[in-house]
Amino acid sequence: MNQSKRGDADKLLDESFAYDGIIIALIISVANNMYDLSLLGLANEFILILIIWYGIVEQFIHTSKTMNIDTRYRLLFYGIFLIGGFLNTFIYKVYGITFIPIILVPMLITLLIDYEFGASAGLILSLSTAFHYHDFFMFLHLFPQVFVSTYLLKNVRSRMQVTKTGLISGVVSLVMILLQEPVRHFYFSLTDYLVVFFNPLVSSIVVLGILPYIEVSTRIYSNIGLAEICTPNHPLLKLLLIHAPGTYYHSMRVAELAEHGAESINVNPILVRACAYYHDIGKIRNPEYFIENLKTPEDNPHDKLAPENSKATIAKHIKDGIEIAKKYRLPIQVEMAIPQHHGTRVQKYFYSKALESNPNTRVEDFRYEGPKPKTKEMGILMLADVVEASSKSLKHPTVDDVRQIIEKSVAELFEEGELDETNLTVNELKTIIESFIEVFENLSNQRIEYPIIDEKMEITN
Ligand SMILES: [Fe+2]
Ligand SMILES: [Fe+2]
User: Can you list the residues of the chain whose pLDDT is less than 70?
Assistant: First the structure.
């Protein structure tokens, strides 16, 4: 059953990439030939790009799931390719080869989509450009810059990393030209060499300049943009702190756990932090219905509500959260984390309360609508959320208490099948559990009492 489900998923993935090669081949062959249009040249390049795409690139991008997150990712990929392709041809025609900003497109795609697509875009651009001008040495100059710039931006976290990448690509660009000089005899002037060196650096500055505009208009964020919304100065987080302080502190602690969990298994910690900050943002609209915001247990409004109504009121924070995420133009991935953080879990407390008065109550009526978490990052967010909420019941926890409650929460989610679509392995879950325990040990307001084994050990420690 699971096997066939996995097979279906792979098939879907295959189909989803099936037309990309044709579209990219069309864009780039037309862009390359826009000045000297020849049908034969256009057809040759179209076929060449198809061969590169289906022969090499497709194998490489198969590991990437980013493109399937949302159609807007694919449209952005085509868009950057389209503008970049025409820009490269225009600049070559007007200023010459040394001015071609070859790393612009791969850098942007690596930052906004992922490394696999960024490097593939760079490979196609540099190969097709060299092919178009019948100059293989051109490929040896362009591709190393692409390779270095995309590789260095693979796990980018800061602007500095982007400009450093531009600088290193500049060195690579210069070295590749100097290495070819004895064979090619470019007879470059000092200005030409300066252009060769500074071109990638300028490209990296342009990338930093246009990145925020792309992020705000498409809601597809790079890690740099995601890190920027993880600030207490964000208007939404200010509102959360004022209207639902309990939820605010819960979100901060979930972020701490989730980020550490993501780091422990080498997935994107910045993405999970951003998702954790905003996962319960919908609670702003009716904070008093959530236990973490109650001043005293007597204030509990659910005491006066039927369990069905309580369930609906609680579940509403998902719909409200999505609406708020759209209104404030939060990243698409953050919006998607909102329904995924509860997946299709049952609100057990209200379900068992309903069962007391009506034994025929359907469990399905007490489920969140989902979907279940789709990626490792979303799985970690769900785990961190559940662990943070369950840890509140511990008054003066020992390490063993914390371990017990974390293991119990993770096992529950695993058995309920909520993590089925995340691809998290059992070993990764074990690593995440250990990372959560470390966070509890480090959080200043969660002092853990260590069991005293003997007096001597207490003194020596
Ligand atoms: Fe929630
Ligand atoms: Fe939560």
Answer: 1-18, 444-461
Report which bound ligand comes closest to the CA of 388: 2
Q: Provide the 8-state DSSP code for 363.
A: G
> Distance (Å, rounded) from C-alpha 131 to C-alpha 133?
6
In this structure, which residues have their CB less than 5 angstroms from ion ligand 2? 280, 385
How far, in Å, from the CA of 317 to the mean position of ligand 1? 7
**Alpha-carbon distance 201 to 163, whole Å?**
7
Distance from residue 396's CA to the centre of ligand 2 (Å):
22
* 346 secondary structure, DSSP code: B
* Both tokens assigned to 310: 């309580």
Can you give the pLDDT at residue 304? 87
Separation between Cα atoms, residue 420 and residue 407, nearest integer Å: 17
The whole-number pLDDT of residue 445 equals 52
State residue 391's pLDDT score: 85
| Two structure tokens written together for 190 | 């000092």
Give the H/E segment covering residue 376: helix 376-391
DSSP type of residue 34: S
Rounded alpha-carbon distances, angstroms, from residue 32 to 20, 24, 38: 18, 12, 11
Cα–ligand 2 centroid distance for 3 (angstroms): 32
Tell me the ligand closest to 275's alpha carbon.
2
Q: pTM surpassing 0.85?
A: yes
For the chain, domains (ranges, CATH) are 13-217 (no CATH), 230-442 (1.10.3210)
Q: Which ligand is nearest to the Cα of residue 316, counting in written order?
A: 1
- Residue 421: what are its φ and ψ, rounded to 5°? -95, 5
Closest ligand to 258 CA?
Answer: 2
Give the Å distances, CA to CA, from 329 to 72, 96, 145, 229, 325: 14, 40, 34, 11, 6
